[in-house]
Amino acid sequence: METLSHAITPSSSPKFTLPRNDNVSRRLLRYRHGFSSLNLRTLRSQRRSRVFSKVECSQSSNNNIDFSDPDWKSKFQQDFEKRFNIPHITDIFPDAHSFPSTFCLRMRTPVTEDFAEGYPSDEEWHGYINNKDRVLLKVIHYSSPTSAGAECIDPNCSWVEQWVHRAGPREKIYFKPEEVKAAIVTCGGLCPGLNDVIRQIVITLEIYGVKNIVGIPFGYRGFSDKDLSEMPLSRKVVQNIHLSGGSLLGVSRGGPPVSEIVTRMEERGINMLFVLGGNGTHAGANAIHNECRKRKLKVAVVGVPKTIDNDILLMDKTFGFDTAVEEAQRAINSAYIEAHSAYHGIGIVKLMGRSSGFIAMQSSLASGQVDICLIPEVPFHLHGPHGVLRHLKYLIETKGSAVVCVAEGAGQNLVEKTNATDASGNIVLGDFGVHIQQETKKYFKEIGIPADVKYIDPTYMIRACRANASDGILCTVLGQNALTRSLLKCSSMSRPWHILAYRVVQVCPS
Predict the structure, then answer these.
(1) Does the annotation mark 154 as catalytic?
(2) Which is the most buried residue in 162, 363, 417, 420, by most CB within 10 A?
(3) CATH number of 175-306+468-494
(4) What are the Phosphofructokinase domain coordinates in residue numbering (predicted)?
(5) Active-site position among 196, 309, 311, 471
(6) CATH topology for the 321-456 domain
């Protein structure tokens, strides 16, 4: 059974690691660097330095815990639990009362004498989650900070248990379904699975007995634009929306001031808001929660994290990522065919990934056709004896063709900075895909070797499609558990992702 849990982390940047014994991954990475064995040893030494610098940073962010103190682990856990504290509705309304859950877990099949063996009765059936249930946040005990992928708290990489709340239906809820007006809003860019999450939230709301459900069109803009009306939602409306990509509600970036959004929520009687979006969207959701709390409004703000890049801390996987990797295969395969069919053909594919190369790397590994993969996490040079272009020359001389896959955020130190930001506050990246295409053509012309360079950018193609089966299941889990937390007690389940993130974990039914 998959459940959703949530936790706070002191770290603020996603971590990308590859298995040390993964020869394919190492080959792809090695040719990106062009490192000699000496340089590789230097890189490992630098990596150890970064590990310990991270430890120092972690220490400073944990109230300067003294690791020589024999009780430092307990203090660290206490600090973790303090930062992990999730706002409770009773923090604002001490007199708030709970009600028996309207989520029915009684067995639908009558237990008869002929059909009773092995089946518990309704009295014995335990389907609710206890409020004290916890999920272990990290399941790997790293023995050394030099271990591949090691995430250490102290220089000795000591094991410290960190537990997070287990998600799921509880026996008690703090909102009467008949008094709830729930609103759903999707912000930022498109992502496969948005409709799946919307659908599951609506269906689960109706299971609890909530009838007044609306969709806010085109992100936060829908709260202020008088030409945009609420969209009534019901199971009948959303029944088949998961069969298509995009968002039923539409998306947009930016929006009106937080105070205006909360005022519109008050006017419309919205007391439960589900926000589907990325970093900026969740920062806005957190600001909405703070404003509601300031006004003493009994409102639950629940965030469902969305990013196709798969770079949210504490999450094993984000919805839409598997679909994006699957769709990217078409572009990579086209690049391979173009390169393989041409004399000295070079195919370049640019995929999404502002700060992380998960899509580019996993798409490359899945295709088996990529010779060079460039991602933001690993520095590289285009020119020089160990540069990408020198290795492309080697591939052309030995193989006759080459395929290059780049993440959009790779090589930003090699392109001109724009210093511009989009409506969500994200820095507008330089187009490294076009840059490497131009540099490749220029390089081969200068060395007198003919090269046929083809460039493919399927950026919007891989995100404007319906979710595959794997992402569909993940979206169902996210939609269900986002609702159970909102009805339970939480006045806010949204934080900027460097503080709070959601994580899907496998929990054995036994």
Answers:
(1) no
(2) 363
(3) 3.40.50.450
(4) 182-483
(5) 309
(6) Rossmann fold (3.40.50)
